[in-house]
Amino acid sequence: MLEKMFNPDSVAVIGASRTEGKVGRAVLENLMQNSELTIIPINPNVDEILGLPCYHNILEVPPETKVDLAIIVVPAKFVPGSIDECGRAGVGNVIVISAGFKEAGIEGARLERECIALCEKYGIKLIGPNCLGIIDTASGLNASFAANMAYEGNIAMMSQSGAICTVTLDWAERIGVGFSKFISLGNKAVLAENDFLQLFEQDPSTAVIAAYLEGVKDGPEFIKIAERVSRSKPVVIVKSGRTSVGSKAVSSHTGTLAGSDAAYNAAFKQGGVLRADSLEEMLDYSRAFSVCPLPEGRNIAIITNAGGLGILTADACYNSGLSIASFEEKTVERLREKLPPAANFYDPVDVLGDAGADLYEHALDVVLDDINVNGIIVLVSPQSMTDVPGIAEKVAAKIKDSKKPILCNFAGGSRIAAGEEILNKYGIPNYSSSERAVASMNALCNYYTIRNHKRGAPAEIKADKEYAQSFIDSASKNKRRMHGLESMDILKAYDIPVVDARIAKNLPDAVKAAEDMGYPIVMKILSPDISHKSDVGGIRLNLKHADDVERAYNSMMSDVRHYMPDAAITGVQLQKMISGGKEVIIGMDRDPQFGPLLMFGLGGTYVEFLKDVSFAVAPIAEAEAKHMVSSIKTYPLIAGVRGEAASDIDSIVRTLLKVSQLVTDFPEILEFEINPLMVMPEGQGCVAMDIRFTLNLNE
Amino acid sequence: MLEKMFNPDSVAVIGASRTEGKVGRAVLENLMQNSELTIIPINPNVDEILGLPCYHNILEVPPETKVDLAIIVVPAKFVPGSIDECGRAGVGNVIVISAGFKEAGIEGARLERECIALCEKYGIKLIGPNCLGIIDTASGLNASFAANMAYEGNIAMMSQSGAICTVTLDWAERIGVGFSKFISLGNKAVLAENDFLQLFEQDPSTAVIAAYLEGVKDGPEFIKIAERVSRSKPVVIVKSGRTSVGSKAVSSHTGTLAGSDAAYNAAFKQGGVLRADSLEEMLDYSRAFSVCPLPEGRNIAIITNAGGLGILTADACYNSGLSIASFEEKTVERLREKLPPAANFYDPVDVLGDAGADLYEHALDVVLDDINVNGIIVLVSPQSMTDVPGIAEKVAAKIKDSKKPILCNFAGGSRIAAGEEILNKYGIPNYSSSERAVASMNALCNYYTIRNHKRGAPAEIKADKEYAQSFIDSASKNKRRMHGLESMDILKAYDIPVVDARIAKNLPDAVKAAEDMGYPIVMKILSPDISHKSDVGGIRLNLKHADDVERAYNSMMSDVRHYMPDAAITGVQLQKMISGGKEVIIGMDRDPQFGPLLMFGLGGTYVEFLKDVSFAVAPIAEAEAKHMVSSIKTYPLIAGVRGEAASDIDSIVRTLLKVSQLVTDFPEILEFEINPLMVMPEGQGCVAMDIRFTLNLNE
Fold it and tell me: Transmembrane residues, as ranges (chains A, B) (predicted)?
């Protein structure tokens, strides 16, 4: 797949130029770095460029010169024509560097659609438009106008921003980071992140996948592919745009609480993606993955020649959720054998300021042997006696052969430069601060967990889908938004327990319904004009006899008429009063990128201002449903705290799975919320007390 | 103060050495960087070192050579003798570089105490022992064995770790950061952070104060001094040891929730100290303060030639609580005038990839003029057309004259190096990532708030201190820990409302008490053997008549005897049942460094696992008490949410101030907790329902 895109024998440059400073020349020069490549400049006005014979049109290239890849740099309006010619000339791979498409407005968007149609017609694989090009260090291809060529390495990088490609390449060059493939995604008209994730998965020269993304093209596919790819290779993504609040009007709790970024967080989590918060983090993590074995636990040993740095690093470990290792007894003994008496033999190991390379080596040897140690951070400060290069050599040799990850922070400036150089030479990352080393160690630990996490298939839920369908059909004929008793039937279709409730149009009906249902009951006003029932006296709790019902009915009518004299009142709703349970919320908001975004949280006022909720993209497997429940901070409140009885968490999990199935089955449900779902003590189930949902009437 | 320590005319080095690699030689060489200094080596075995006449003992130095400062580098056991000689020779300032004191064990600690006594005897100001020395770039003094001399600058730095001095100096040299004074604190036997805070406050060459601390010597003084100093100069401190859980047994909520670090966070906040989480942050913030005016608000403009970087930077602003500025209309118009049509004229301003220095200059000019902009972050990525040095020159010139802070992130590697160099030349920090620039901008904004925050004096509370004293005296005669009704009197002495409660030894007394108090009431078992009353049926709620009291009394006695047949029962406690209020907790735990650490949080189970509590070191002013209440996440629950009535927050604030006064007046109170304090709706006050406290019997 895409073999000839990244390892072509011959490449045409449509819009090649002689003029210095022009993209059409920069691309040509970059391609010429590889002397084995057949390079074919295309320019209607010239016969030769930089010593290469130039054709006026790609159709003129002799058929025996099979063009594997065409790079287009002509102005946007000529690009569709060039693609058409590529198609007719049988060129299967095209990179469009030219800008002026979707990003530039309506006319550009039209041009881009034209290009897409042509690619479909001819089966052309296209990268771009509006991109920097691609680099493949394994094949020696630099099909870009980037000023830097990448070093060889095992990190594959893709970026939705060309400028960020430039920054990353320049930065990587300074700190000695290499790449296997480097792809500027541009507008992702045809090929996008999902295609390249799969390419990187198969690519033998790629061990780590890094990306800068501003969005994903196909969210549900992305989760599936990332989930698979991340089982074999770590996927580190920095996704920008956390802040841009979508313009979509939100009317549910789920929508309000989700913000624009919750879906990405959920999807990345489900896809096993490590989300980096900055380019720096992305590079830091990728460097660690590129050289380190994975730690089999979160117990970290620190070796330092400066006590203060050791403490700061331990602090950083603690903040990241890493543990400071408890050494085996023999480790402490062996450290004591060679380290001076004033040294610290426990984690963080302080070899003291005058320690030479041999002491570092000894400490590393001993600590590596300790079964309680999963990873090591080596700190070196340039004190007056410190043999920085000597220590670097010893440490680098250990890291090369280690089965446990070892990360370094040689801390300082010019006096540690020689050490950094040696580490660089061995391809070992040196982090400029111990906090960055710790963050990267944490990423290694997190990926170990991701890789060993069993997700399982989405649960199969038995449901009366036809009944639900007929209900939705009739509902959408009438109105868009539904809530309350009238829409409870859709829950029944998915076997979600709902509270016993009746509608009564007058007092005698209300009394009769109450007598049928049994006491105690709750009475609520029914009116299309009243949304906050309690504000107008429209709720009465704990009615215990027919008398109570009568008194409540009469006073409620009087109250409601007082507060809202013009409200149309259609009757009252009676429902069984349920006590002894805890209120939770299960919601769903349809995300434009990923589809059904499920939400779970505690009910009541807490959910709103603590924002203590969890998210996942449906459909979810049982493990995810469990995680949704257990990952909220207030989980102890339902798991049972201070001797209180545990709530029936299994029933929440089952309900989450049923809702997941429901909203997956019916894409026309835009918003959905069970609020509250009353959860009874363990073994006693749960019951939906109220529901609201919004249908998309266009579907 | 300390004038001759940092700007001496003559310096003696006790333990001066000819031997290369020895500290006694390194110090001498460093001092000799200043040719105007009179340097006097002291060594009993030598007559001349490095061309300087050497005395065998400081007492031999002729009296006309007034020695302003002596630096001692002899082995620890000889140090007291040397100090004694300094004292006799009339030397007022001493730096002890030698190690082997408190940090080395019992004998070292004894030696250190001896040194302290001698300093007291002679009135000697001493830095160290176990330190690297000091540097003063204004006077040209390098009285240390550091390998790097600091650049001149306006940042004063002190560090409790010599190794961290070394790292910081080396690092600062690489990135061109300068210092006014640089102090290695060592063991802080005599002079400590509080002394130097005051020195830096007065020092005309210091504009920014930075520190690495592992602890403070006098916590309450530290808060007072820092509070004053931070009004004129920013104080940035990285404090290590967040993780080290104190060995002190904790029995109160306050202690459990505080951990080891809450007191530092509270004290730093009260002292106006900006806490940095790493050395990198400390240097980053200090650099920003060293050159930037303060922003008068949190609205930040971003100027970039790379859209993606702009979005990432906006994300970072959002995460830090900074806002993206809303430009005035005329700003957008003026940007439109010169920027190309595809540019972005709103924040973040995208001048596009091919922008030259003139466009950057124009954008900066225009955005600086906007009254809605408080600070600016300039991003430069090295794209193919980017004139990095040209942009750096224009930007640097603007920054020099700007009344608003401007921070830069020239992003990349070798291709932005020329720009970095120019910025360095102008003394302008370039941050290696936009996230670091944003964090530093946030520090500037936070300091602006700190400097303008009026703290006010601790509130004066009227209290019957004598009554409280007599109560504590009698309590401490009997037992150490007290709770419940028996200790409510201490609250009354400080005018804190307590629940009406009585003790009854038998049923008739109980009925009588209930009739006296009025219904409804709560009955609790009284027994020294029962701590969890509810577990043994020892609590009855909502008793409404004498009948209820009788039934409750009898069934309680029967239940309690059933569960705990051997418990000694002294009677029951009756108290007024209070409903319609919200439970909060006010606690105090005595911190070893800072003294009385107050805690505030909501009552109930939430406080424990949400850890949603606030802290402050007593005595507090009213503003701090208000902040304690409003800064918990669950504040909306008491402030009134969703139409619920607001609680009487004023009464909480008043109670906090009273508790603050109480625990300040009585240092023998080790732990103290009102739990719950029942807060009624606004205007209706609050009432302490239960209290427990622990006295220190040794005082």
Answer: none
